[in-house]
Amino acid sequence: MLPIILLSVFGIALLFLGFAKSKAILLPATLLFIAIAFGASFVDWGKNYMYFNDMLLSTNLSIAFTAIVLLSAFMVVSLSSSFLEDESAQPAEYYAIMLFSLVGAIMMISFENLIMLFVGVEILSVAMYVLTGSDKRNLRSNEAALKYFLMGSFATGIMLFGLALLYGTSGSFVLSDLRSYVNGGVAYGSPLLLYMGLLLLLVGILFKVSAAPFHFWTPDVYEGAPTLFTAFMSTVVKTAGFAALLRLLSFSFTGIYSFWGVILMAVTVITLVVSNFTAVYQSSFKRMMAYSSISHAGYLLIALTAVGQQSKQALVFYSLAYSVATIAAFGVLLVVSRHQSGEGKPTDESYDAFNGLARQNPLLGFIMTVAMLSLAGIPLTAGFWGKFMVFTTAANRGIFWLLVVAVLMSAVSIYYYFRVIIAMYLRDGQTTAIRVAPFYRYVLIAATILTIVLGILPNLVRSLV
Amino acid sequence: MNAAYVPSDYLPVFIQLILALGFIVTTMIVTHMVGPKRNSQKKDDPFECGIPVVGDARTPISIKYFLIAILFVLFDVEVIFMYPWAVNFKQLGVTGFLEMILFMGLLLSGFYYVIRKGVLKWE
Amino acid sequence: MLTLALIFFPAVAATVTLLLNGDSAKRFALGAALLEFLLAAYVISQFIATPEFQFGFDVPWINVLGIRFSGGIDGISILLVLLTGLLVPLIVLSAFGQNYNRSATFYALILYMQAALMGVFTARDAFLFYLFFEAALIPVYFLAALWGGANRIPVTFKFFIYTIFGSLLMLVALVYLYYQTPGLHSSAIADFYKLNLTPAAQGWVFWAFFIAFAIKMPVFPFHTWQPDTYVESPTPATMLLAGIMLKMGVYGLIRFILPIVPAGLDTWGMMAAVLSVIGIVYGSVIAIRQRDMKRLIAYSSFAHVGLMAAGVFSQTTYGVQGALIQMLAHGINVVGLFFVAELIFDRAKTRQLDQLGGITRTTPKLTVLFMILMLGSVALPLTNGFVGEFLLLKGVFDYNNYLGALAGLTIILGAVYMLRMFQKTMFGKPSNNTQSFADLSTSELWVLVPLVFFVFWMGLYPASFLKLTEPAVTNLLRYIK
């Protein structure tokens, strides 16, 4: 649990570092802080420890998710150099909020007490509301923040209601108590309360991971938020949300799988179908990525419905593959749109922004291509093995109809991911050569290499968990 | 974990709830029915017996008020933590004291941050 | 280990090619392709005609799932390894006449494609097969999309979506089969052969595989991507598609459908065979009406591949043997024909049959070589096409007389469209476009001569190829009985 303490302290430290005259120290300091937390998260490797009066539980699984979240954060932060050029931005505060939100994410990943889940969700969400609206002069950003805040508060409210019902029926917030309560037959209280409570709790978390039909906020918020925070949101929040769901469902509520399994499968199908077909009709790249992130929530849900060791591995691998590819894609978008505004053109976040990109910038084109291939699940990228593992978990449980739906939908998804590749390589555009800062470039290259290496040797991560 | 609760144990709560709601609803209905009513333009003004109404109520207010208000809520709530600590001061002993020091330290660093940011400066 | 070299050598060579520029990239790619051909030739000379896999490699890859990185060459794959090894250097050479911009990327993509194709034909693990099956799509997509004709973007996109849709269905079938294997699951193709599936399950698996491979080949009614893609692609990409890539489909039929789902084949095989035969007749009739040379050859290829599929579905030794030998023969012929079409287009600036004519006056070498390739495609005895088509038709006849009779139309119709094409281009009065038509240059000659050499070798002494495949085919057909 070292990372939680470290990140809190580092967050405060960053606030004060912001008073220093030179802002240049902030970025390296933040990266260093995250790297330290990343290393510290492995201290408990191989041991199962309860922390803070049985509030949090550290397992290898939770450490793996923590590592993914920290890695995503590290990459996102390293793409943030533009803050330092912007006069009105307040980098110290942004970085501090990001670190605080990571604390929330880690709490969601390793909670043992439902109160911690709630507190974690709130820390993460409130940080996200602020970051979404951080582009203060941009009306879109304001609108997005307000929408996110209002809908998010309702979702947490519903979730809290669910928690209360669960407590009312079982008399405890602790996961292991809930487990024995569910498994021991429902002796006291009414099972209806239990079901209602679980349902409301699920609705709350499914909202956070933007699964349909709780996804309506996603496109607007993703589009309105500054690209960097969109990348942060679509990776960290999603990974943490799924880790929380996994912990909750695969540990405490396996006894009533017949109840939530059906609900999640219905949500999965709706998510996959709605998101993929809607994504096809988007003209904005960012909106497309929003629907893509919804659709990936659908694939992750498939693994979730198939409880077991395999589904854990699948979730870890998929989250990693998805996070890395998404950040690389947003990273390229960020460079391109900054280049546009640097040339005095209006910022364009549609597919057309990428027209002819690969002519003058083969490296950026390649990075984007690999990211898109990985998201689409084409072999020799990490995304393929992610999808593959997810599909096998469904097959393992014999749910072949779900598998067929998922496969058909991923065929649909190829359409919208390839539009980017086509725009970059085949359409004509005036994009000139873009100068990318060395560090920025290394991060993007590292993401690409990671994607390809995991595509060839998926064992590297699998054997860990 | 006291598992002995049954739904009927919550009955008093429900009765209280119904009574509370019932009281409000009844009073509202009764006042409408019992009280005499004379409507006129003057009488329908928000402030019947004050100065005449001028302009719109939704004028912009300086953001400083909100900041101060929010900060007040924050520190106010955090100070509440000191009450239970003070009550249990003896039992918690040195550990409790150190923990409180840490807590207050964090709080004060927040306060320092607020001052350095110039939030409390009123220009 | 030799198989591993066959797969990885082109991939490494391709990466080196990317780093070179212009002419040196070109020459390096050709050298690498030739070396790869020598390697393939050596493998074939050392190949012993038994049903066993040879020159193999087998290492654990994804332990938890029991997936192994394993491959090797047996009688089913040997001719396709030869085909890939033989055609790629010729395809590279055929591109020398054209000045493709960013040529290093162009040749590198061809070599990447070769690596993936070699992988497809030699994989012994089902997921490895799938991996290469998909990986082969990426380079050829970019080849077609980057250097293609005016309408290339929608056309190649359609092609890509179509094929990936099919292969995803195959993935479902593979995952299903994987979970049927006993114990700690295994994805070795050989283990799939041992499964005892219920007839209903076999039916589903059959369709999943069939649609995947039918799109790749393509078989009627999954062919709508094909003519446009062939026409819009740059000719080297068309050659790769028609010459080698569509064989992935036929190969898949033989490797997966025949031994794994015999009961599914019993139930649905007739329907698949009928679809294939419809494709033969339909493709041939449309080919007769074509005015664009490239489009005509595309439809002819569609018709020929229908016959191969029908032969496989006949489930006879003749049919499968015929399909194997015909894959090699068709690859050679169709690459030759596409090359001639490109060559004519290059000089006459048109591919429309009614704007061509009289080329033969100035081009004795081209006429002779073109005619031999054309006759091979028509399946004249003593050429390569004859052996394959004869065996295939024999197989289909044994399976069902009526289908056999219909499929036999391919010989007559094939002669009609091929001879029409030859006559319209080579004979008659020269048009404005063909007034001055240069004969073959040396490099062009070097593309066509090896092809013609193989046309005769296979036509005159097919036994040297048939004997390689026979034990494996007999062994494979055991699973059906």
UniProtKB/TrEMBL annotation, chain A:
Topology versus the membrane: Multi-pass membrane protein
One GO MF term: NADH dehydrogenase (quinone) (non-electrogenic) activity
BP-aspect Gene Ontology terms: ATP synthesis coupled electron transport
NADH:quinone oxidoreductase/Mrp antiporter transmembrane domain location: 113-411
Primary site of residence: membrane
GO cellular component assignments: endomembrane system; plasma membrane
InterPro entries: NADH-Q_OxRdtase_suN/2 (IPR010096), ND/Mrp_TM (IPR001750)
Membrane-crossing segments per the record: 30-49, 61-82, 94-127, 148-168, 188-207, 228-249, 255-277, 289-309, 315-336, 363-386, 398-418, 439-461
Record has Repeat as a keyword: no
Subcellular location: Cell membrane; Endomembrane system; Membrane
Reaction equations catalysed: a quinone + NADH + 5 H(+)(in) = a quinol + NAD(+) + 4 H(+)(out)
Lineage: superkingdom: Bacteria
EC number per UniProt: 7.1.1.-
Keywords tagged on the record: Cell membrane, Membrane, NAD, Quinone, Translocase, Transmembrane, Transmembrane helix, Transport
Enzyme class: translocase
Annotated Pfam families: Proton_antipo_M
Entry similarity comment: Belongs to the complex I subunit 2 family.
Subunit structure: NDH-1 is composed of 14 different subunits. Subunits NuoA, H, J, K, L, M, N constitute the membrane sector of the complex.
Function (record text): NDH-1 shuttles electrons from NADH, via FMN and iron-sulfur (Fe-S) centers, to quinones in the respiratory chain. The immediate electron acceptor for the enzyme in this species is believed to be a menaquinone. Couples the redox reaction to proton translocation (for every two electrons transferred, four hydrogen ions are translocated across the cytoplasmic membrane), and thus conserves the redox energy in a proton gradient.
Protein name listed in UniProt: NADH-quinone oxidoreductase subunit N
Source organism: Rudanella paleaurantiibacter
Upper taxonomic lineage: Bacteria, Pseudomonadati, Bacteroidota, Cytophagia, Cytophagales
Automatic annotation (TrEMBL), chain B:
Any one GO cellular component localisation term in the record: plasma membrane
Listed EC numbers: 7.1.1.-
Membrane spanning stretches: 13-34, 65-86, 92-115
Signal peptide: none
Domain of life (superkingdom): Bacteria
UniProt xrefs under InterPro entries: NAD(P)H_OxRDtase_bac/plastid, NADH_UbQ/plastoQ_OxRdtase_su3, NDAH_ubi_oxred_su3_sf
Subcellular location: Cell membrane; Membrane
Role description: NDH-1 shuttles electrons from NADH, via FMN and iron-sulfur (Fe-S) centers, to quinones in the respiratory chain. The immediate electron acceptor for the enzyme in this species is believed to be a menaquinone. Couples the redox reaction to proton translocation (for every two electrons transferred, four hydrogen ions are translocated across the cytoplasmic membrane), and thus conserves the redox energy in a proton gradient.
Similarity annotation: Belongs to the complex I subunit 3 family.
Quaternary context: NDH-1 is composed of 14 different subunits. Subunits NuoA, H, J, K, L, M, N constitute the membrane sector of the complex.
The protein's name in its UniProt record: NADH-quinone oxidoreductase subunit A
TrEMBL record, chain C:
Organism: Rudanella paleaurantiibacter
Top EC class for this record: oxidoreductase
Domain called NADH:quinone oxidoreductase/Mrp antiporter transmembrane: residue spans: 123-410
GO biological process: ATP synthesis coupled electron transport; electron transport coupled proton transport
Chief location of this protein within or outside the cell: membrane
NCBIfam families: NDH_I_M (TIGR01972)
Transmembrane segments: 29-48, 77-97, 104-121, 127-147, 159-179, 204-225, 237-258, 270-289, 296-318, 324-345, 366-387, 399-419, 440-460
Top-level taxon in the UniProt lineage: Bacteria
Keyword Ubl conjugation attributed: no
Membrane topology: Multi-pass membrane protein
InterPro entries assigned: NADH_Q_OxRdtase_chainM/4 (IPR010227), NADH_UbQ_OxRdtase (IPR003918), ND/Mrp_TM (IPR001750)
One annotated Gene Ontology cellular component of this protein: membrane
EC number(s) on file: 1.6.5.-
Keyword terms of this UniProt record: Membrane, Oxidoreductase, Transmembrane, Transmembrane helix
Family designation: Belongs to the complex I subunit 4 family.
Subcellular compartments: Endomembrane system; Membrane
Protein name (record): NADH-quinone oxidoreductase subunit M
UniProt keyword Transcription present: no
Pfam family, one: Proton_antipo_M
Molecular function in Gene Ontology: NADH dehydrogenase (ubiquinone) activity; NADH dehydrogenase activity; ubiquinone binding
